[in-house]
Amino acid sequence: MSDQGTQPSDTDPTAPDPQAQQEQASSGRQTSVYNLDAHTRRYAQRTAGMTASEIRALFSVASRPEVVSLAGGMPNLAALPLDSLGEEIARLVSTDGQAALQYGSAQGVPQLREQICEIMSLEGIDAHPDDVMVTVGSQMAMDLVTRVFVDPGDVVLAEGPSFVGALGSFAAYQADIVHVAMDSDGLQPEALRQTIDEVTRQGKRIKFLYTIPNFHNPAGVTLATERRAEVLDICARHGIMVLEDNPYGLLGFDGQTYPALRASDPDNVVYLGSFSKVFASGLRVGWVLAPHAVREKLVLAAESATLCPPTLNQMIVSRYLSTHDWQGQIKVFQEQYRERRDAMLGALEQHMPAGCDWTHPEGGFYVWFTAPEGVDAKAMLPRAVTQRVAYASGTGFYSGEFGNRQMRLSFCYPTPERIHEGVRRLANTITEELDLVHTFGSADRRPMTGPQAPSPDTA
Amino acid sequence: MSDQGTQPSDTDPTAPDPQAQQEQASSGRQTSVYNLDAHTRRYAQRTAGMTASEIRALFSVASRPEVVSLAGGMPNLAALPLDSLGEEIARLVSTDGQAALQYGSAQGVPQLREQICEIMSLEGIDAHPDDVMVTVGSQMAMDLVTRVFVDPGDVVLAEGPSFVGALGSFAAYQADIVHVAMDSDGLQPEALRQTIDEVTRQGKRIKFLYTIPNFHNPAGVTLATERRAEVLDICARHGIMVLEDNPYGLLGFDGQTYPALRASDPDNVVYLGSFSKVFASGLRVGWVLAPHAVREKLVLAAESATLCPPTLNQMIVSRYLSTHDWQGQIKVFQEQYRERRDAMLGALEQHMPAGCDWTHPEGGFYVWFTAPEGVDAKAMLPRAVTQRVAYASGTGFYSGEFGNRQMRLSFCYPTPERIHEGVRRLANTITEELDLVHTFGSADRRPMTGPQAPSPDTA
């Protein structure tokens, strides 16, 4: 169809744009002007910001069985009662399949939305099912909240570091992501105030603060209870909405829960929840709780995004909640992850050379690790994989050039023995790296940590 | 937290915007400026275009059991083998649950992508599984294709009328939707040429042509085989990508299939497929087949949209395809829908007053009906529901003010008896409406049909 040989290449600045092609064709020239590169010239402006995340590039290497992967965030599902779950789903399909396999509403199955309200009440939230919308994982909720609120160039505040998936959603809508510093007690209220002042002085418009208060991904810290009212107050005073992301809130290792931000400010907080970490990630069932007017806009946005979330998956979760001891199952998860956290902290203590630092999470999946000066975590990764251990380098969790001495170490998926072995291999890699640095100097010329990075005393 | 009594209302043009609020708060004023209306002022520009579709508003009324709904597009799942399907899913969860309930790749399960290529080969498509991405229904594929290609103000060409869900996706990205006329042989090549010339003269940039070649929703027509090469050639010459949406292609009532547009132009066609109409809509499993570079961008967009499609649902479809006689099942669907189409056409012939016109679909779910002059289908709908029949008024299937004499009548879901009764009730409603029109004149002052509407001889 096209004569590709005579077409300018994608990198040729003289290449005609589609507009010109359309005019040319309309003016009567009958030669085909289509070629493969044409697609590249047709992309929307937002598409320029879509690049493969470092974590994604890593998954294929890190998934080889001989490599201990401390990189992924996959929950450990081995403890799930798969047989009884399978039987329950078979009953559901055989007795109620015509509903379960049919289209549903964009807002989600009413019974599940009621059960979601019961779950949220465990963290002090008083909500009505009509203000809940079910989503295809809470990733979709982030996407839709951003879609509804963010124009290109609007500022979104996010902890530094922050969840890579959220940063991806914000970037997809051309948000200007500005990080706010954390310490071992989570987001720093004073840093939040200063950042808001600075951004406002620059004449930019802040749309919302994205925060993961509990067992932070990737930082492994929790927002101190006494800071919560202050963060809410700062945002309310400045007319900034709060987007609270809470996938790990029920995975505190002592069974403790923290009061949700949404519990004390129903009007200014949009809350995201998920069944991915407390039940099954592959079902892709999450939710958003929002003030009524916002929830209405989110439903309209969801209709154009996926029409409706999968009915079957929602009914499976609903049945699971009503027929299984889901709170007992969460206790099993808590114990399992606590054991793995302990294995990781013990191994770090035992094997890491001097000058390393790391957080001590009380729940969730992640330890945030800071290597000694001179180590470039991203550059070191291929050498670590050669030594059969993988991690997520810190740079992926920032929108700017930060986190190059940091790594996210996940303890959720490997067994305690594998975690211990992985940390031992990582310690060897770092030790060898430091030997190289001391001999030849560091190749890393970037700033070690920015003002956005958690301070090294995050312990 | 807020002092709502003293806050300006949302409609008050003097209401401060968040930017001003942020500056005010930064300047030291300590009063809270937050109120509920604040959310409305924070919405992105694209959110202004998000309004509830007419069809959605209809679903709640039309779902009462005494109403015969000819409005929805729900497939009839009664013929599915629910017991054996339930058993198959139970086996899947019990033996392979740790994979089925876990995160997967954004592109989708490899085995399913191979099977999708086999399905597409039935319509002449030669594709590689690596160029396929699985989506949460093909609605998500439309959303992502638009996300990757459309900047605000870019033109998307679409048949007039067109699928309401696609129009919603295009509107969500602020596309300028321009309709192209159809007749009983589908999209008119000459109208396509003229529309491209006109839009190009206006200095606008056309990103793609969205088309449903087979058993069109809502028009019920099929693009004639001899027109297909011409449509492809026009688009290729003008540098316009083709987005081919084909959810009904295997639901031809005589078992006939048409050659997919993608089959003869792999480089310039992005193809959308779905299991919603040939297996189960509630699983939300669809796919997109795209040239390699485009597919890569789509995967990146999908990661920020939902992280990955539900693994369980993909594995269910894959197992169903390999363990059930899915082609035999499609034959059952074809026969069922043909019987219902016949019931509808027979009842229309028997009951409708003079001056009505309708299409004669050879497959799919829908008849496109044109009422006599003077009838406003949208205004008449409440009176039809009072007479216990519902339809989708034609205006919902256009982006402009067209289709007010038209209705989409679905024959997919009700039984033949209910279809007959529904059409009888609709005929009575129209007859009474015409009596009113002849007595008092029509309240309808809008143009009867635009140049974009299928011509009345679409039979």
UniProtKB/TrEMBL annotation, chains A, B:
Signal sequence annotation: none
Compositionally biased residues, Polar residues: 1-12, 19-34
An annotated GO BP: alpha-amino acid metabolic process
UniProt keyword annotations, A-Z: Aminotransferase, DNA-binding, Pyridoxal phosphate, Transferase
Obligatory cofactor(s): pyridoxal 5'-phosphate
Keyword S-adenosyl-L-methionine: no
Domain Aminotransferase class I/classII large as annotated: residue spans: 75-426
Entry keyword Glycosyltransferase: no
Region spans: Disordered: 1-36, 440-459
Annotated Gene3D superfamilies: Aspartate Aminotransferase, domain 1, Type I PLP-dependent aspartate aminotransferase-like (Major domain)
A Pfam family that the UniProt record links to this protein: Aminotran_1_2
GO molecular function, one term: pyridoxal phosphate binding
InterPro entries xrefs: Aminotransferase_I/II_large, Class-I_PLP-dep_aminotransf, PyrdxlP-dep_Trfase, PyrdxlP-dep_Trfase_major, PyrdxlP-dep_Trfase_small
Family: Belongs to the class-I pyridoxal-phosphate-dependent aminotransferase family.
Known partners and oligomeric status: Homodimer.
Matches recorded under PANTHER family: AMINOTRANSFERASE, KYNURENINE_ALPHA-AMINOADIPATE AMINOTRANSFERASE, MITOCHONDRIAL
This protein's name: DNA-binding transcriptional MocR family regulator
